From TrEMBL:
It is found in: Nucleus. Belongs to the lin-54 family. Keywords: Nucleus. This is CRC domain-containing protein.
Amino acid sequence: MDSPEPFKNNNNGSSPSSAPNSNNNSPDSPQEESPFCRYVSSLSPINIKASHGTRSFVGLSSPPLVFKSPRISHRATQFMQRPQGNQSVSEVRSQSENGGNILGEASGYYLKSNSHQPLPERFTTDTQKVFDPKNDANMQHYGGHLSIYKYLADPGDIDQMYSADQDVEQQSTDAAETSVSYPTQSNILNIGRKEGLGDKAEEYLPLSEDSNKVHQQMPVYGEEPKRMEGEQSDVEKRYSHDPLLPQSTLKSNDVGRRRLQFEEGASSAPESKKSHEKLNATSSLYPQQGCGNLPLPGSKPSGIGLHLNSIVNAMPTNEAATTGVRLPDISPRMKSTSSERLQRRENMKGSMLSSNVNAESSVDTRTESHEIDATDAGNSAEFNKTPSPCKKKKKTSVPSNQDGCKGCRCKKSKCIKLYCECFNAGVYCNGPCGCQDCLNRPEYKETVMECKQQIESRNTENSARLKRGCNCKRSTCLKKYCECYQAKVGCSSGCGCQGCKNSYGKKEDYVAVQHTWNIERMSGNNQEMVASETDYDLRRFSPITPSLQCPDQGKEAAKSRVINMFASCSNNTQSSQDETVVTDEMLRNDSYDSEIECNNAMLLQDTLPSNPSFSYAANQWKTVSPSPFSREPIRQCPGSDCTPFNMIVREIHEASTLMTSVKVNSPSQKQVSPPQSGLVIGSGSSGGLRGGRRTILQSVPPFPPLSPCVDSKINNNKDLGNSQSKDPHCPSR
DNA sequence: GAGTTTGAAACT
DNA sequence: CAGTTTCAAACTC
């Protein structure tokens, strides 16, 4: 193809399509005069200095990528792509004028590489390009800005991102950095906002849809500028709303029936107009487009959505090589790993990489589209059309309102029990609802609040005994009766299902991976660890939604994890093929465990909240060898505490303690919401982090606290027994 | 569209 | 805390 060279350093303000310069090695090259080039040149593969922008994020408590869901991944993927689709001519020009054009070029490159080649070839090509040592540095820098935004740019977090953008931009004195930084989301958002686009609920298309559409419709960069601009406008329109496109959109739409989802309602509020002006407030409100809003006083803890049972799966997620190898089978959940990987690396190294992630991203998205088309057309269509947090229903007998919310049809619950989806979703019933004797209406605000409080307290009290996961007995987890299946996630050992045949991952598969995990543990030659961790059976914190989406998960998954781990150690200068080969070798290498564990630990470190108490090991890592494939450990663990399992245990324990202290109990304990953990960007309760894929598993506080402090809440719990009976409106059965 | 099945929520 | 009932969605016909 004759598209622009991917990573030229365009310092002369030329457009990306002009004067392609694939070789910046010329000593006379003006690029090397630029601060950016000097910066890039100063970068070593491993020890990457933190730029302004990077530093801003390195300091971040890395959003626990474990908690990121495939949906988020979709979103992230989308954001990855966004530069392509949104890379308008003017925008590129602007970047060029600022002295850096990496983003535009990367976008062009990305589009190019993503366009016509058959997948395997394309992947290889991409990967090779990606790991071009020369380009890598650029991409690191590029990724330093972009990738972090990609992942911080969860639509629900756009506000924070936006804020962060400004912050970073103010700090940045490097023209090159500024020029390449975050032209994407925030600008897009601003554009959308400036355009005064409406924020009808129906425009809140799930990102996956956007992603797919954008991806599918996106022309090759430079191919049809006008058309692309037109499409960009469309994209911008959508994204102008996406920021507040709630996790809950998926959550409430995609998931099980009667899990507490009030929090989702809060976080899902598509309140685009005011979004970035109230970073913290948004998540504690309930503005649900079209479905009424439930007033929720007070703030709620962060909805980080610590899906503890994702830890195991997230830690060893497959890396680039794996993606390439297993691309055809990539599952929605596995796809999430691309974003996780990127963020993980960002967090780990403080440097951003990464073209390979970009390549993966493109692949992922494409694959997603195919997958949706091929295997889940019905669901995806349904999902993609989900316009609002109101649950989608297969049945359409209940007329939808303009927002597409079909409402509930409760007859006896009076819509103030979790049976009611509106209530459960934290929205008032309204027009399209076919409910009877509905009390879930603004005029019964008090009643609604009381009932919510009741449920909250009840769930808090009973949470310990609530089961995690589904408990299907007859559906074999193959029907939507199964909440795991409905959420398109596999069952875990935490599920109480019988005869599980969940096509997204059987419980048995999860156990198999867990077994692998245990083997890895044991091979770490840390008896102390094993002994001390016995009490902390991972299954107690087991993923409700294991990332086992493929039928061949077991050993394959384990292998993938090894691949990923090594990939994590990689300085990203190896091709995916090399990684695969070497990984096979590593699999036979007894010495890989230390690396695995170190990497696991690193990954875990990144997956867990960066509360100061969680960062004990972060600074203890030291790079020993730049080569991920040497038999020498790449990173050395200073002590047994660095074993991943110890870390998991400790982290979980601390998290659990904190969660208890903040009283963020998931009604079903399918998820836990870790406390707000020192996020640098944004202090919003849920802003900086993304929820889990399973909407019902999403974070947490089932109800926003009605009282300002925990103590009072506890007291309330004591009184709830009385209030429960006192409440004339809350039907007690 | 009615009836049945299902599993979670609610209750005892 | 196990068992039962209630409930509404999912499913079937």
